[in-house]
Amino acid sequence: QVQLQESGPGLVKPSETLSLTCAVSGYSISSGYYWGWIRQPPGKGLEWIGSIYHSGSTYYNPSLKSRVTISVDTSKNQFSLKLSSVTAADTAVYYCARHVPPFDYWGQGTLVTVSS
Amino acid sequence: EIVLTQSPATLSLSPGERATLSCRASQSVSSYLAWYQQKPGQAPRLLIYDASNRATGIPARFSGSGSGTDFTLTISSLEPEDFAVYYCQQRSNWPPTFGPGTKVDIK
């Protein structure tokens, strides 16, 4: 069974960088597929942030591209998200997911609040 | 980017009734459309991919149809656990985009 688990700080200060990691179990990232990040502001809909292919190629949402970096560490079977210069608008539940496509396995999500 | 619109925003039905949810794309997405279910406090769950294929473990009461710009998710007979928010998502073009969701609540 494929499982994903997000981890990282739940509180980030404005203008700083949000950093999250997604640990994958039950499937080797290096075997294939994309691996993505999706976020959901409280009470709102879903927004794709970006995805990384198992080979390392990255794809970002144009609306966030200037602030997003996604990387993969196949030795640890995990991938990571960095979002720079955060504001209150970046407060959301952040999900990682296997991006076949579509998004077939999801982590439980982690709430990140941007506040001083 | 491709914009997805969903209707209605809210659907109020009783258990046992049939639910019909609509998703419309701003341009053709062929059959590259998926449906997800999300319950409060939970991650979305994939129900349907490529317009009409049920994901692993999804009950037969869920079915999807459509192609091009107009798609439908049908729940043939609502079970208590089906009351949730449903999102459509296209993978025809980058970036992948989601619709705003339809909430199915208990009448």
SSE diagram, text form:
The complex is a heterodimer of chains A (116) and B (107).
Chain A: E1 3-7, E2 11-12, E3 18-25, E4 34-40, E5 47-53, E6 58-60, E7 68-73, E8 78-83, E9 92-99, E10 103-106, E11 110-114
Parallel strand pairs in A: 2-11
Antiparallel strand pairs in A: 1-3, 3-8, 4-5, 4-9, 5-6, 7-8, 9-10, 9-11
Chain B: E1 4-7, E2 10-13, E3 19-25, E4 33-38, E5 45-49, E6 53-54, E7 62-67, E8 70-75, E9 85-90, E10 97-98, E11 102-106
Parallel strand pairs in B: 2-11
Antiparallel strand pairs in B: 1-3, 3-8, 4-5, 4-9, 5-6, 7-8, 9-10, 9-11
Description:
The complex is a heterodimer of chains A (116) and B (107). In chain A, the strands form 2 sheets. In chain A, strands 2, 4, 5, 6, 9, 10 and 11 form a 7-stranded mixed beta sheet that branches. By secondary structure, chain A is an all-beta fold. Chain A is 0% helix and 53% strand. Chain B has 107 residues and is an all-beta fold. In chain B, 0% of the residues lie in helices and 50% in strands. Chain B contains no helices and 11 strands. Chain B is globular, with a radius of gyration of 13 Å. The N and C termini of chain B lie far apart (35 Å). The interface between A and B is medium-sized, with 20 and 21 residues.
